[in-house]
Amino acid sequence: MRIALGVEYDGSAFNGWQSQPDGRTVQDVLEAALSTVAAEPVRVHCAGRTDAGVHALCQVVHFDTQAERPDTAWVRGVNANLPPTVAVRWSQPVNDEFHARFLAQGRHYRYVLLNRPQRPALWTHYAGWHHVALNAEAMHEAAQLWLGEHDFSAFRAAECQAKSPVKSLYRADVRREGDWIIFDFHANAFLHHMVRNLVGTLVYVGKGAHPVAWATEVLNSCSRDVAAPTFSAAGLYFAGVDYDPAFGLTGKIADSSVLPFTLL
Q1: Which of 1, 3, 7 is nearest to 79 (CA)?
Q2: If you count DSSP H runs as helices and E runs as strands, how many of each does the chain have, helices first?
Q3: DSSP labels, 195-212
Q4: Is it true that domain 2-103+244-257 has CATH number 3.30.70.580?
Q5: Are 5 and 100 in contact (CB under 8 A)?
Q6: Measured distance CA(226)–CA(165) in Å, rounded
Q7: Cβ proximity of 172 and 146 under 8 Å
Q8: Phi, psi torsion values for 179, nearest 5 degrees
Q9: Eight-class DSSP state of 108
C-alpha cells in the first residue's frame, strides 16, 4: 500500500530534510515515527528537500507499507511519536504510480521578510530581516522579469545537484503588509538555494543598490558571482505542491499553498 501525507514542520529545529548520520533531520524523525506505527521499517520520499532552517507549510511525502492502518493512525498515531516541531496534517492512500517528487508538476515557496530598523526577537527563526526600508513595488516589478522558462544558473548554489538549470517560473509576487514583505514563488521546480538567491537579489533592487533592469542582467549572466548573496533561510517556507488532479490531492494541498501566512 502507498500512502501520501501532508506534513508541516519548523525547520529551525533540524539540519534540513534529508536523512543524515546524526539523525537530526525531518526525514529521520518522520521515518522513525512511521516505523513505530507501521511496526516495520518505513522509507519516505518528499516533494521538495529543504535546507537547514527552512520550514514547510505543506510538504508532501509518500511511503510504502505492508501495514494496514486507518488514516487516523497515520495522522494522530504518527503525531504522537513526533517531536512538537513536526506534524502530519493529513493522510491519503494513493495508487502505486504516485511519486511525491517525480510527479510533482509545480512547487510553491513563500518568503517572509521583516523590514524595520530593529532586528526581530520573536521571529528570529521564522522570518528574514532587513533594516533599510525596501521598495516592494520595485522588487515586484523586477521579479516579473524572471517569469517564464530560463536558465537560472545565476541563482543556483554551487552544490546544486539538479540535472539542468533551466526552470519555468510561473509566479513571482512581492507585496508589503505593514512591516512585512511577502514573496510568493511558483515554478515547475527550483534549484538549490534558488528562492533565497532570488530574494537576495530583489532586496538589492528594493534598497536602491541597483535598478529594476538589473534583475534581467543577473539572469542573463548565468553567473552566481553577479547575483546578490544568499538570503537567510529563516524566512523561507515550502508552501505546497501541484499534482495531477487524478491523484485526488488537490483540495488537501490547495489549503496550504494559499495559506495567508503574514505574521501580523
Answers
A1: 7
A2: 7, 10
A3: HHHHHHHHHHHHTTSS-T
A4: yes
A5: no
A6: 16
A7: yes
A8: -85, 0
A9: E
Question: pTM for the full model?
Answer: 0.93
Give burial (CB, 10 Å; 0-12/13-18/19+) of 73. Answer: middle
Catalytic residues: 51
C-alpha cell at 89: 496534517
As a whole number of angstroms, the distance between CA 36 and CA 112 comes to 35
pLDDT per residue over 179-236, tens digit each?
Answer: 999 999 999 999 999 999 999 999 999 999 999 999 999 999 999 999 999 999 999 9
Rounded to 10 deg, the angle between the 194-206 and 214-221 helix axes is 150
Into which CATH architecture does domain 106-237 fall?
A: 2-Layer Sandwich (3.30)
263: how many CB neighbours lie within 10 A of its CB? 16
